[in-house]
Structure formats: structure tokens, C-alpha cells
């Protein structure tokens, strides 16, 4: 029998991935409202580190989460069993579910999932656990630390806390980690393995991690203009580390419509690629954009959410990749990077995707703060200093890990005709 128009519509809706909730814990705000306010005014969440010694480093600043009280999100009896990253992830997940007006029940729990990207989560617990092993021996180890030493601790604790019994996965893909998690989650829904998934990224900052990045000479330093995160700026000389969690509630459009959910927008398509040794890195960026736009090559892109992180290499690569992907229109598309406000982390893409969702919902492009000196190698249309009010129908989100992988996510807002 031929397929009815109603059946075709249902099949189409089941493949459409929509965003129905956001949750965020960041250095510029905890929760949607505070985070949105920080984005609009170009608030900086970067400040001098107070929690550990940085005298050994050329960098002393980070995007630290302040005023975070885990007891606002979980029972006090559970807090001491959880590492900081798991606390962030649970808080962001509960905020996202609240925003989506969704609850896990006995009936739907097996169709709900959690997929998080995590870079070095559990590192603080690992450091403390193994320090105890070295100093005190195996007989005096703290068993409560061990479950938090693995990267999947955060997603596991989220599923336990919220009663989620469906898809549970943690991904690590360098600086495309959160993007890889969101892409994997979308595939799970499109393949019918889940109706709704919490997807995003979480990172915590520790002295051990900070020392590692410092010893690799990747961190920013003061060259007379202050230590700052200044993507695309001529004087940029390194990144500033960050922590936090950004989580989206994504679900099939059919599922969202059936429960009367508010839809922020859609994840239309995506691309996640590696690089061959014979290929220029900018070509990898361009290929990921082309994959995200397959079948929609004529669509107008209103904004590019840049991966620029204030490093000399990445920001210039991004500009070259965008020019290759949009040979006739690259200079007209507004671009900005919120890493100027919050810093950089392995799974910062989760927080950035929350920012993209809010930018579409409220019609603005967040600024790239700290930009002062134009760089001829980064000569695109960067939004700097102040928010640009602009109705955003579609945007491209970029994730870049130089020499390793490149990701692009094409998003469309709900009101788009």
C-alpha cells in the first residue's frame, strides 16, 4: 500500500532532531537566565585563580565557576561522593530537564539517554587517589575516590541521579569532544534507539590539568596588554582554561510534538572529520562544513559560532577553512567566539551550543570581547565589543582541534519559515 501523507509526515518528524531544553553551569552564569544575561552584555568570567598556586606558570587566570552550590541540585549526603565535574553535569542536566518541562518516569526511562563529552574529568580524583597510593600504600586508599577517576563518571552519575536507563555514553575527541557527543546523540535518536537524550559536555579545572597545559606553553601570557582570551586578535598568544557544563535536551520532533514541548530549534545536519597527512588543515574544516550543509548548499547562514580560542594557529586555520567553505560569501557572515568570555576547555562545545540556542531564540550574536588589534590573517566579519542584534534563522557551529579533527553543526531556529 502507498504511504499516506500523514505517515510520511510522521516519518519525517521522527528524523528531525530538535532542542527543547538547555542547562548550563559556567563562569558567566549558572542557569539559562544568568548565562543569557552574561552573553548579552559581554561579561567576562575570567579572573585570577585563587584555588591553587599558579606562580610556576606564565598564566594565572582561568574561567572558573563561581557561586556554585551543589546542595541546590542534589542531597547533601551525595555531594561528598561526587567529583566537581559530576556535580556540574547533574546541575546542568536538571536545569535542562526543568527548562524542557520533562521528567523521567518508570514508563519512559528506557527511552531516555545521556551522552556527554568529557576531556579530563576525574583528573582531580585520580591525582588524589594515586597520591594516596604513593604516599600511604594500597592499604590506605580512599575507596570513595576511585569511581570518580574515570571519564564516564559524570554521565554515569547523571543517569543514576535522574533515573535514566537508556543510552549512556561518554566521548572524548580532543577539542571536538562535546560536538562528538551531540552528534552521537543525534544519531541514536535518528536510528530509533532513544526518544530523548541529554547531550553536551563537562569539564573541571584542576591544578594538575593547569600544569599540563602550562608546561606545553599553550596558555596565554601578558605581553603588555594584560593576560586575556582574545580570539582573532593580532596580539593573541595562547588560551585561557575554563570549566563548567553545557547540556541540551534533544529529541525527535515527533516526540517533542507529542508531549507539547516548546521547541527552540533544530539540529539539521553535522559533520565530524579527521585529516589525512596530505590534506591542509583548512580543508578539513571546510569538509566538515560541507558535510553539515549537504543538501542545503543554497541556505543562507546568518551566523558562525566560531571555535577561535586565542591561539595563533587555531584562529587562523578557522578563517582559512571558512573562506574555502564559503568562497563567495565568507566576508558577509557574522562570526564571534564566546571563548573570549568563558575561556577554553576540551568539552566547551556544550556551553557553546547552549549559547547558540539562546542566540537563535533571542535574536543576537554575542560579542568577541577583548578584541583590540585586527590581524590580517583573521580578516572576516568578527562581531567584537558589543552584542549584534540580529534575527538568526540558521547558524553553523564549528569545533576545531588542530591536526586532529574538525566538526560542524548546522542549526535552525523554530520560527524559521
Secondary structure layout:
Elements: H1 5-15, E1 17-26, E2 29-30, H2 32-41, E3 47-48, E4 61-62, H3 76-79, H4 84-100, E5 112-118, H5 123-136, H6 153-162, E6 168-171, H7 177-190, E7 196-203, H8 207-215, E8 244-252, H9 253-258, E9 265-273, H10 281-292, E10 303-305, H11 312-325, E11 335-336, H12 339-342, H13 349-362, E12 364-365, E13 388-389, E14 394-401, E15 405-413
Parallel strand pairs: 5-6, 5-7, 10-11, 10-14
Antiparallel strand pairs: 1-2, 1-8, 1-9, 3-4, 7-8, 9-15, 12-13, 14-15
Helix pairs in contact: 4-6, 10-11
Folded structure, characterized:
The protein folds into two domains: 17-258, 3-Layer(aba) Sandwich (Peroxisomal Thiolase, Chain A, domain 1); 269-413, Thiolase/Chalcone synthase (Peroxisomal Thiolase, Chain A, domain 1, 3-Layer(aba) Sandwich), CATH 3.40.47.10. The chain is 33% helix and 19% strand. The chain contains 13 helices and 15 strands. It has helices at residues 5-15, 32-41, 76-79, 84-100, 123-136, 153-162, 177-190, 207-215, 253-258, 281-292, 312-325, 339-342, 349-362, and strands at residues 17-26, 29-30, 47-48, 61-62, 112-118, 168-171, 196-203, 244-252, 265-273, 303-305, 335-336, 364-365, 388-389, 394-401, 405-413. The chain is globular and about 60 Å long. The two termini are 32 Å apart.
Amino acid at each position: 500500500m502507498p504511504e499516506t501523507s500523514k505517515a510520511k509526515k510522521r516519518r519525517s518528524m521522527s528524523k528531525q532532531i530538535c532542542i527543547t531544553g538547555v542547562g548550563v553551569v559556567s563562569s558567566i552564569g549558572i542557569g539559562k537566565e544568568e548565562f543569557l544575561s552574561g552573553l548579552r552584555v559581554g561579561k567576562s568570567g575570567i579572573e585570577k585563580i585563587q584555588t591553587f598556586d599558579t606562580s610556576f606558570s606564565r598564566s594565572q587566570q582561568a574561567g572558573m565557576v563561581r557561586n556554585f552550590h551543589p546542595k541546590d541540585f542534589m542531597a547533601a549526603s551525595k555531594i561528598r561522593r561526587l567529583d566537581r565535574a559530576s556535580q556540574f553535569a547533574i546541575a546542568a542536566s536538571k536545569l535542562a530537564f526543568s527548562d524542557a518541562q520533562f521528567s523521567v518516569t518508570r514508563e519512559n526511562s528506557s527511552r531516555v539517554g545521556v551522552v556527554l563529552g568529557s576531556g579530563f574529568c576525574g583528573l582531580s580524583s585520580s591525582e588524589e587517589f594515586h597520591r594516596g597510593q604513593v604516599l600511604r600504600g594500597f592499604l590506605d586508599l580512599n575507596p570513595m575516590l576511585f569511581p570518580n577517576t574515570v571519564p564516564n563518571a559524570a554521565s554515569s552519575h547523571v543517569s543514576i541521579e535522574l533515573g535514566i536507563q537508556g543510552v549512556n555514553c561518554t566521548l572524548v575527541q580532543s577539542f571536538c569532544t562535546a560536538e562528538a557527543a551531540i552528534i552521537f546523540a543525534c544519531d541514536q535518536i535518528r536510528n530509533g534507539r532513544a526518544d530523548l537524550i541529554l547531550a553536551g559536555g563537562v569539564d573541571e579545572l584542576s591544578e594538575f590539568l593547569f600544569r599540563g597545559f602550562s608546561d606545553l606553553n599553550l596558555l596565554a601570557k601578558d605581553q603588555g596588554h594584560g593576560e586575556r582570551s582574545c580570539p582573532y586578535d593580532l596580539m593573541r598568544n595562547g588560551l585561557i582554561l575554563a570549566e563548567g557544563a553545557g547540556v541540551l535536551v534533544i529529541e525527535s520532533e515527533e516526540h517533542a510534538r507529542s508531549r507539547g514541548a516548546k521547541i527552540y530549534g533544530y539540529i539539521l545536519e553535522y559533520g565530524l572529520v579527521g585529516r589525512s597527512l596530505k590534506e591542509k588543515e583548512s580543508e578539513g574544516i571546510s569538509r566538515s562544513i560541507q558535510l553539515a550543509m549537504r543538501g542545503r548548499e543554497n541556505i543562507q547562514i546568518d551566523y558562525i559560532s566560531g571555535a577561535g580560542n586565542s591561539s595563533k594557529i587555531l584562529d587562523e586555520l578557522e578563517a582559512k577553512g571558512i573562506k574555502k567553505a564559503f568562497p563567495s560569501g565568507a566576508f558577509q557572515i557574522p562570526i564571534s567566539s564566546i571563548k573570549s568570555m568563558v575561556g577554553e576547555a576540551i568539552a566547551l562545545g556544550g556551553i557553546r551550543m547552549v549559547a547558540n540556542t539562546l542566540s537563535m531564540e533571542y535574536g543576537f550574536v554575542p560579542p568577541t570581547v577583548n578584541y583590540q588589534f585586527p590581524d590580517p590573517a583573521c580578516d572576516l566579519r568578527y562581531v567584537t565589543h558589543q552584542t549584534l542584534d540580529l534575527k538568526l534563522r540558521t547558524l553553523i557551529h564549528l569545533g576545531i582541534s588542530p591536526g586532529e579533527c574538525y566538526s560542524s553543526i548546522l542549526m535552525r531556529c523554530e520560527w524559521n519559515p
